[in-house]
Amino acid sequence: MSETITRRLPAWALRTNGAVVLIFLYAPIILLVVFSFSASRIPGQWGGFTSEWYATLFDDSRLQRTISVSVKVALVSTLLATVLGTMSALALERFKFRGRKVFDALLYLPIIIPDVTMAVMMLMFFSQAFDLLDSVFGIGLSKGFATIVVSHVAFNIAFVSVVVRARIAGMDATLEQAASDLYATRWQAFRFVTLPLIAPGVLGGALLAITLSLDDVVVTQFVAGPGSTTLPVYVFSLIRKGVTPTINAVSVIMLVASLILVAGSVGLQRANASRGRQQLRTPGGTS
Question: Which domains does the chain have, with CATH numbers?
Answer without folding.
Answer: 11-51 (no CATH), 67-172+200-281 (1.10.3720.10)
